[in-house]
TrEMBL record:
This is HAD family hydrolase. It holds the Pfam family Hydrolase. Coiled coil: none annotated. InterPro entries: HAD-like_sf (IPR036412), HAD-like_SPP (IPR051806), HAD-SF_hydro_IA (IPR006439), HAD_sf (IPR023214), PGP-like_dom2 (IPR023198). One of its GO terms (molecular function) is sugar-phosphatase activity.
Length: 236
């Protein structure tokens, strides 16, 4: 951490992020493994409309449903199609489970301000959090709350405002490149969860293969997110 004029300022290094004021989590792929449910929804929709499912799935990574539909099928009513897709996903939680370490990290996060910022709608987010047995945060920013999805920073900035925390004092946890860009464009530190969705075009402040590699600790009103020692993988 850095002290400037008596104020402790956040610092980011290759081993961790220290002296931040809030934690903001993406949902799908970060806190919950919902990949199978998402794939079922988009493949079924693609088949019904004669679209290339692989292209649709690739386009959907990190994006709101309405924006994905607009990109891959501009001839369709994106709001109506996305609404139908989201309604189906809220009902289908088969196979939705917490990602490794999500439970322990959220238990630690509860020591201070935290939020979830997702590209899904509120019904989908609530259904998946409950299916995974994870707590529902007081601040939950969903696709319903913004006019532009990730990589636009709107969702993360809104979460910071609702928590009453400066954007530059927040840590974002993301597993996709649009999400990482959204956090960075909001002026926040970003922890990237390595995987296909992260891609090679973004550079988070810290990258891990799973949340269980992280040690989250609150002390004197600020939070630090650091790498666990080698061999200690936490909740696997």
């Amino acid at each position: 951490m850095t002290v400037t004029g008596g104020e402790v300022r956040p610092t980011a290094t290759s081993t961790g992020l220290r002296a931040y004021d809030a934690l903001l989590f993406d949902l799908d792929g970060t806190l919950v493994d919902s990949g199978a449910a998402i794939e079922r929804a988009w493949r079924g929709w693609s088949d019904r409309h004669g679209l290339d499912a692989e292209r649709v799935l690739e386009t959907s990574v990190g994006r709101r449903g309405v924006e994905t539909v607009a990109l891959v099928a501009p001839h369709l009513d994106s709001a109506r199609e996305a609404g139908n897709l989201e309604a189906g996903q809220a009902r289908d939680t088969v196979g939705v489970v917490p990602t490794p370490g999500a439970g322990i990290v959220l238990a630690a996060a509860a020591g201070g301000p935290w939020a979830v910022v997702t590209s899904g709608t509120r019904p989908v987010a609530l259904a998946r959090l409950r299916a995974a047995g994870l707590p529902v945060p007081t601040v939950l920013v969903t696709a319903d709350d913004v006019t532009a999805g990730k990589p636009d920073p709107q969702g993360y900035l809104l979460a910071a405002r609702r928590l009453g925390v400066e954007a530059g004092r927040c840590v974002v946890f993301e597993d996709t490149w649009p999400g990482v860009l959204a956090g960075q464009r909001a002026g926040m530190a970003v922890v990237g969860i390595a995987g296909a969705g992260l891609g090679a075009t973004v550079t988070p402040d810290l990258v891990v293969d799973r949340l269980s590699r992280l040690d989250v600790r609150w002390s004197s009103g600020t939070v630090s997110v650091t790498l666990r020692p080698a061999g200690d993988r936490g909740d696997t």
